[in-house]
Amino acid sequence: MNLDERLKQLALTAQQYPPKTPEWQEALKQLFHTILSSGKLCRPYRGTFIYHYEEIYQEAKQDLFEYICKNIHKYEPERGELMAWCNFLLEVRFFRQAIPKVLGRRGIHIMSLADLDKEASPDPSPDLAEEIKSYIELDPDNFLKETYIKNYPKANFSALLKLRLEGRPWQEISEIYGMSISTLSSFYQRCLSKFIPRIKEYLKNI
Asked: Which residue stretches of the chain are H helix?
């Protein structure tokens, strides 16, 4: 029996019993063990949130399994494989929800972008700097990368944010892009004003 068939069988077995009965619990226990031991459970946004990724991932997995326990009756084999259902929920819902839960517990706050310049100079906390860079890298809708100085896609808002967070002075950034400091800094400030509400809204809803 292949993995998908095994998971399907266990899910259907759990559906046969009332919640919290011994039979229900045993079927779900075997289901979760099979999922975890398969190596097929995805790891969303790998490479982001470097210092806290494992903690976020573990939180997301726990929330995923709690959801499956409460909603195993919703699983319909004809609509797709159970592993695909798990991976979709983990990536689209539970990993994103785990980010603010874990970072908040650790006393880490993803600051408003209006404060990035202040924090980037002269020497931000390594943990905080990495979390901000990870969020910029994640760029869920690609709107940071897709906003750039006209005719210069490499001079995009995402790239400038990273450079400023690294503490790069405007003179150095000007030399990198071959543009005047005033052009770059004006673009940067306009982007900050434009995107702060959108980013705050995203962080509130993930």
From this structure: 3-15, 22-38, 53-71, 82-89, 95-105, 116-120, 126-138, 157-165, 170-177, 181-205
8 A C-beta contact, residue 83 and residue 37: no
Task: Go through the chain and tell me how many residues it has.
Answer: 206
Q: Following DSSP, what letter does each residue of 59-78 receive, concatenated?
A: HHHHHHHHHHHHHGGG--GG
- Which position has the token pair 């990993």? 95
Report the run of H or E that residue 148 belongs to, with start and end.
strand 148-149
**Residue 176 class from Cβ within 10 Å (0-12 exposed, 13-18 middle, 19+ buried)?**
middle
Bridge partners, 149 (sequence order) = 152
Task: Give the Cα separation of 149 and 62 in Å (integer).
Answer: 43
Tokens 């503490």 sit on residue: 167
The residue type at 71 = N
Closest CA to 199 of 121, 135, 146: 135
Distances (CA, A) of 141 to 69, 147, 165: 31, 11, 21
Rg (CA), the chain: 22
- Check: pTM over 0.90? Answer yes or no: no
> pLDDT tens digit string along 138-180?
777 788 889 999 999 999 998 888 787 776 778 888 899 999 8
- Classify residue 86 by burial, with Cβ atoms within 10 Å: 0-12, 13-18, 19+: buried
Compute the distance between CA of residue 95 and CA of residue 196 in angstroms, rounded to an integer: 22
